[in-house]
## 1
Amino acid sequence: MSEPTSTNKEKKKTPLNGRRALPSNNSNAEENEVPEMEAFGLIPRGFNPKDYLRVVDIHMFKEHYEINKQQHHTDKYYNPKLIVRRGQPFQIQIDFNRPYKPETDQFWLEYLIGRYPQQNKGTYIPILVGDVLKPGEWGAKIIHRENNSIRLSIMSSATCIVGKFRLYVAIWTPFGIIRTHRNSATDTYILFNPWCQQDAVYLDDEKEREEYVLNDVGIVFHGNIDEIKLRSWSYGQFEENILDACLFLMDKAELELSGRGNPIKICRVASAVINSRDDNGVIAGSWDNTYTYGVAPSAWTGSVDILLEYYSSKQPVRYGQCWVFAGVFNTFLRCLGIPARLITNYSSAHDNNANLQLDFFLDDEGQVDAKLTKDSIWNYHCWNEAWMTRPDLPVGFGGWQVVDGTPQETSDGMYRCGPASVQAIKHGHVCFQFDAPFVFAEVNSDIVYSRREKNGAQVIEKIDTTHIGKLIVTKGVGSDEMVEITEEYKFQEGSDEERLALETAVMYGVKKQTTQNAMYQPQKDVEMDFQVQKAVLGSDFKVTITFQNKSRNSYTATTYLSGNIVFYTGVTKNEFKKHSFSAKLEPLLSSAFDVMITSNEYLSDLLDQASFHFFVTARINETGKILAAQKATVLEIPTLRIKTQGEMVADKEMSVIVEFTNPLKQTLENVTLRLEGPGVLRTVKKEFRQIPMNSTLIWEVKCTPKRPGLRKLIASLNCDALRHVYGELSIQIQKP
């Protein structure tokens, strides 16, 4: 990877440079010509290759019910070729034109990958037949001989390149080497092996392997900390052509083939190629609520459509937001055999200048100054964790690593993030590569409210140390439960260990601004908080502001409420509610004030995720002190109902029915419905011109499930007025 790469055009012209004899070998798709007859010198006239041992046929045992795919946990891939995992033996059978005589006959196998195979790069692998197989090293031995056939057990190296290899059988004759023809039916995919102890991605718990490698559906937690929402996502890593699409991503990222056995390198380049910034990668992000010429991020139900569209068009697919990047990244990792899970961090900091501090600037009135305030708090942010050893770091930093394909900030000049050790983030050891300081800030920043006085002095009104990274969650193993993993990322809020981790991070260069030069005297004798009533999209609700006057003085507080419609990234679209009032605060009493929010105030401007952000600031007139509080809130969005009709048996037609009732006081126009279920049906779409208010649409889809077992159907509804409408149904498909 350290080669100085010039632009693509120059590279095409001059494939050779002074430092290497062969051009870079970074495409799994390209091949070289392999000679079928490699003569040692002049061939005598009477030589007839037919006199020697000759290969008639090769059997790969590549059906999903046969030994190789069963033992290697690759039987779920919809792919006719042999797929095995590295560091574990597999079997093939070779039929010759006559019985094999070990005393005189000599043959060997050759596995090749890419355009310029070289033995020292692991891209040309000759395998001689021996007597024993060493675990985790390339080798082959004969386990059965019958008539003209032999059966071989082949062991691949536990550090071998992951990709698609070509197989040749070579036979030695006194006058030259005779090889089999190029035959794509014998191509062999080799994947990472979490079941193999010598593999860098080895995971020792079978239940976890079933979840993090073999489960093809998952759950995305979204909404916000007070109102957690969840939706299913179809990863579909075993669907047709997905494995090839994932290998293509590594070609697209121009990762040297010799580096493709290393999960650290693969994660690093994948986190860049998942987004389209600076490398024309898979998904184009859009956070501005206009999704012309593309699919709204909320409409996708899974990764398969996105990866297949990219694989065929080679152009970025529009559009994604964080959970879409994370969903596709998870498919990529699981497909290649790297254990992976999707993580949600609630109240995630996007700290523009990485100073562990989100600065909110207030004006004289105590209202937020939008021009000065650059940092933002995402209601939630999704990233991935991938499981691997980290031989490049000190002992103890292996295990789960954060990787993030959402383009937020550049790392080494590209939009990418990770892999960063979760353990290193927890302990503040952010000096260890890659991008640990950025992730540390996402889960540990403080919120600082400050205000400029008339004389230019900066007064800090409030520091909130507990708002960010309040809750970090993922889907449970073998269940749809939400599991909290906050303590994997940080120590108990306010504990000595937490302080120590912060000091360590600061020592290792995470900038933390000191607040000495600013005056900070927190307001002690009056406390203010507010609550937002839970509400369904389209209804009115109220915000209740409470004051507690702990002093013996009477106060009046000039109070401002600002209601904003925000993207889930915390960026404001517009202010839809401004309300100010004067609150009388009696000594030693609590008092509450209600502000009503009506649906016609917010409906016309509502964004995708129906998110609001409320700022309440109050100035105590007698002391000049300012109190500030902020909260995000999400409206309840209606769901789709899914039901089935007919018997649910593999290879037999059944019906899926999707229903939806329009809850808004308006007609929905140009509505798109999507439905998919891995192993049951490929994504189907339907457009509806109009759904009048209070009316119900019913959509029936016929399908033939491919395989038995517990499966999930996932549906989404999307139109300009209403997004993030989902439904799902778990179904049991019986054996025929």
Note: The chain has four domains: 37-191, 215-508, 526-634, 641-733.
## 2
Amino acid sequence: GEVCNMINKKYNEFLPSMQSAEDLVAQVDRLSSNIDLLKAGIENEVQRDLNVAVAEFTELKQQLEQDTLVLSILKKLQEFDTAIKKYNTALMEKKYVAAAQQLAKARSSLKMLQSRQGFELKILKALSTELTVQTQNMLYHLGEEWQKFAVWKLPPSKESSSLESALHSELHLGTVPSKEEEVAGPPVASVLQAFAVLGELHAKLKIFGQLLLKYILKPLISYPSLQPVTKEQSDVLILRFKSEEPKLDHASPMEVFDKIKLVFEVLHKYLLNVPLEEPEDEKDCRVTLAELLGDMIWEELSDCLIQNCLVNSIPTNSSKLEQYIEVIKSTEEFEKALKNMHFLKGDATDLLKYARNVNSHFANKKCQDVIVAARNLMTSEIHDTVKITPDSCVALPRLPVPGPGDHLKMQTASKPLHNDMVNLENETKLSQYTFSLPTCRISSSVEKLMELAYQTLLEATASTDQCCMQLFYSVRNIFQLFYDVVPTYHKENLQKLPQLAAIHHNNCMYIAHHLLTMGHQFRYRLTNILCNGAATFVDLVPGFRRLGMECFLAQMRVQKGEILERLSSARNFSNMDDEENYCAANKAIRQVLHQLRRLGKVWQDVLPVNVYCKAMGTLLNTALAEVVTRIAALEDISAEDADRLYSLCRIMVEEGPQVFTPLPEEDKNKKYQEEVPVYVQKWMTFKELMIILQANLQEIVDQWADGKGPLAAEFSAAEVRSLIRALFQNTERRAAALAKIK
């Protein structure tokens, strides 16, 4: 009963809660179906409306962008149009800078329009054309104005670079401000600034700069007689030239600088002192026109000044170097003046560097002058000669007296440098003739060359170290040049003309002679600078001796060849009883003697006597030896042949010595003619041959004297036997004589 009650109670409590749960489920079901309805509604209607709205929004946005673009384009077109209108107004009023700035604005508007992608307007082409036309129009107006400011009056001729045409060239500057314009600022400024804004200034100035160089600046540098003249005439300034007699061939740099400064001052005052930006953008460093023009022409102008003005002003001897300071100063002042006028910016241009570097230029110029002078001497005629004797000396200026700073031992170097006594270190006195040259003739050009060498060395001893070295080496170069130039330059004449070959031989010996002692005289000064006493020329001596010898020996070979050639027409000296043969032989001998006489004459007083005698002796010897060889080779000599051969030989012996005439004074030549046997090796051989031609068998045997007689000294046994067989019939007496020759 208890249990039952409890269950009832629980059940009663349960029923309501179940009821409420069922209610709840029903509610949820209702809600769920409502949601489904709503969802269906949203999916079907709201979503569609939303899509439409977004599409509309995007479309509106694109429309807005399009409108903004069109608006900005219209704005730019309007800007362009306004700019062109303002430009036209400004141009009419000759406000050139404003006009140019408006064109620049129009150009930038057009650039913006062209940069818009996907925006192709036919109008752009038209605008571009319009802008080009207006720009050209403006440039034309500016050009017209510019031509009024700078008018060139040039000579009609094509020849632009003569003094004549320079005198007819004028530059008219129409920029002299009249009173009322002074306030408004000179119109030239606005024209040039307008050119700058349009980017055309460079081209205009370049043309102006080129004309300025060609017709004004360069003529002023090239023609010392030109003077620039300016004159104001109503509102025009005229710049032209007048001619004055110049004091020197080359104007001094000071004068040239002054003239050029004047031209720049005029240009600066009347034309170029114009800032390139409008004053409202106050920049610290405004570029002026002068600077632009300076940039364009300075390099060419300074080159021209260096080449045609400074180069000529470099002194040629060291004593004038001191005064060169003036030139350096005036170069500095010239540059300073140009800087003040803004033609130049920056420091120490090439022009100034060149002037300051005078020592090195001095040395270079000096060396170049020396080499040019030397080359001229080497290519001048060899046959203008001077006579030198053992006591000739090279003429020299006195050495400068050493100043307090030069503790150089320059003792004695100012004495004339004699060919004879050279005082070697004062200790050992050499014989007067150790270093002497024999009397002979040399080219006067070579004597001058030697003087040039000595003077250059003297100059070297008085110069700065660097210059001293350069000059010393240029003297060495003179001799190396001689060695290379002379033999080639005079080659043909040295081969063809025996006299020139002789003079050249002497020239080389003379140079070699001086080279032996040349460095020695200047050793005190040169050795300090040239390491370990390299101030010497001795190494060049053998080369010069060889050069002289080779040339002369080549000439000797030519002469020998001619002698043998002439003797070859003597028909071997055989069958002299035939009249025709005898005539041919006689003619050959006469021709050889004639050749030798002629040589004896052209070498007379030219070659040193000992060389002369050796040379003539050698050639006469060639002739005699050839005759001996031919006659000794004959197999049959009749009595008449022998007589005729003897008379031919007698001509040689009598007239041969007479070709020795080393000296112009006839009476002094006797001595050398008597000494012929000394110089002619085959002389005695020839005399012995003549004896044989006249002798009988016994006399020949006596002359042989068992191989101890004079005949044996000149001929071999075989030669003598051969001659006996040719001269004598085959008899017992001949056989007996032959037996004794062995």
Note: The longest strand covers residues 226-233.
